[in-house]
């Protein structure tokens, strides 16, 4: 797939995901404010991808502040970090990446202007590379859970576009495809933002992996007909007990999977876990503009006067999740103790 997050010292180029699948265009960011706006406005989306982008955004702050004193450079980095963290509230990878960058800046701020920019550039590149490596490890760790001749249903886009590269849920699909195990990927269109129809289908077509798009409300009948062997989704934030926030509609898919006795897998790197939150009740859920629901292709479909809601994520309780596949191993059954055992230690 075409590179979607491209960094060259002081310039961040982001594939504009809002325009896919029609057009391939890049948005250029030279300041942390531009990177934060790109996250807020969905140029780039997906939990690990916005974490990687935020890391580069913090590095941009150091490049922009090269002329100032050590104190002013650190202040610029800290304030950029705060602005980037506010860009979207649910995916914890964003705050995780910013905090890692800020910690690095604090260690190194006295080293001179160019040194700080170089160091933060290197740290952001490391976060990016580690995320791709994590996705590949998720694919390898989850492969034994993927059935031969598998017909996989996924929701939203948890692919290369949503990560540093390769993908989490689609990382598992790609690993299974490489092992000859994928018969079909069913991609929920994922109303209202259509990440499944626009992005998951685009990625899979590019990779020549068979994909069928369905409206979200068709998943139940597909499952009832015995046409889905396994569900694989990504995650935006996973609480200490394994409750998982992901794209709105994921919870419904998990309920359906349980009813039809279909394994429901979550694929996510350890940076998506927020062990400070005991359960899903504490996960902040982004509310986006109702216009994204009410207006389709420029035409208003809902009469004015009707209220419209748009929670962008929902929480799937751990009890509905068969396994969470991480780069450090598989969590199954999904309990507090197993979450702590697999991801509870620091990797650094
Ligand atoms: O609103 P989005 O498109 O950022 O939501 C993305 C999702 O919900 C993904 O499933 C999740 O971030 C996992 S990405 C590997």
Question: What does the model show?
Answer:
The chain is α/β, with parallel strands linked by helices. It has eleven helices and 16 strands. A seven-stranded mixed sheet has the order 6-5-4-7-10-15-16, with helices on both faces. It has a four-stranded mixed sheet with strand order 11-8-9-14, with helices on one face. Helix 2 packs antiparallel against helix 3. The longest helix has 30 residues. It is globular. The structure holds 5-S-methyl-1-O-phosphono-5-thio-D-ribulose. 5-S-methyl-1-O-phosphono-5-thio-D-ribulose (MRU) binds next to helix 2 and strand 9.
How much strand? 15-25%
Span between termini: 30 Å
Overall pLDDT metric:
96
Binned, the helix content reads 40-55%
Kindly report the oligomeric state of this protein.
single chain
SSE pattern, N- to C-terminal: EEEHHHHHEHEHEHEEEHEEHEEEEEH
* Backbone structural class: alpha/beta
Over the alpha carbons, how many angstroms does the gyration radius reach? 20 Å
Strands, total number? 16
What are the segments in which pLDDT stays under 50 over at least 5 consecutive residues?
none
Number of helices: 11
Largest sheet: 7 strands, mixed
Bound molecules: 5-S-methyl-1-O-phosphono-5-thio-D-ribulose
Read across the widest sheet, the strand sequence of neighbours is: 6-5-4-7-10-15-16
The coarse overall form would be globular
């Amino acid at each position: 797939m075409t590179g979607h997050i491209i960094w060259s010292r002081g310039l961040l180029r982001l594939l504009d995901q809002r325009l896919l699948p029609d057009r391939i265009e890049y948005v250029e960011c030279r300041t942390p404010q531009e990177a934060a706006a790109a996250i807020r406005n969905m140029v780039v989306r997906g939990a690990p991808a916005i974490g990687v982008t935020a890391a580069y955004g913090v590095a941009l702050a150091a490049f922009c502040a090269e002329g100032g004193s050590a104190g002013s450079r650190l202040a610029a980095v800290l304030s950029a970090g705060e602005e980037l963290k506010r860009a979207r509230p649910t995916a914890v990878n964003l705050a995780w990446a910013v905090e890692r960058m800020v910690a690095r800046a604090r260690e190194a701020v006295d080293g001179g202007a160019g040194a700080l920019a170089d160091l933060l550039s290197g740290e952001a590149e490391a976060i990016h590379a580690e995320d791709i490596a994590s996705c590949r490890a998720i694919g390898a760790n989850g492969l034994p859970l993927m059935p031969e001749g598998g017909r996989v249903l996924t929701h939203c886009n948890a692919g290369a576009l949503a990560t540093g590269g390769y993908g989490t849920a689609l990382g598992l699909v790609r690993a299974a495809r490489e092992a000859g195990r994928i018969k079909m990927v069913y991609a929920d269109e994922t109303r209202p933002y259509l990440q499944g129809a626009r992005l998951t289908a685009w990625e899979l077509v590019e990779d020549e992996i068979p994909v069928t798009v369905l409206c979200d409300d068709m998943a139940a009948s597909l499952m009832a007909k015995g046409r889905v062997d396994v569900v694989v989704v990504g995650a935006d934030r996973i609480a200490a007990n394994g409750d998982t926030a992901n794209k709105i509609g994921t919870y419904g898919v998990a309920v359906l999977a349980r009813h039809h006795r279909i394994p429901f897998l979550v694929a996510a790197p350890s940076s998506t876990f927020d062990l400070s939150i005991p359960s899903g009740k504490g996960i902040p859920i982004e509310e986006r503009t109702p216009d994204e629901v009410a207006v389709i292709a420029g035409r208003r479909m809902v009469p004015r006067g009707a209220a419209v809601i748009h929670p962008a994520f929902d929480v799937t309780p751990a009890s509905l999740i068969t396994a969470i596949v991480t780069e450090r191993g598989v969590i199954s059954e999904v309990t507090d103790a197993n979450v702590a055992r697999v991801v509870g230690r620091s990797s650094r």
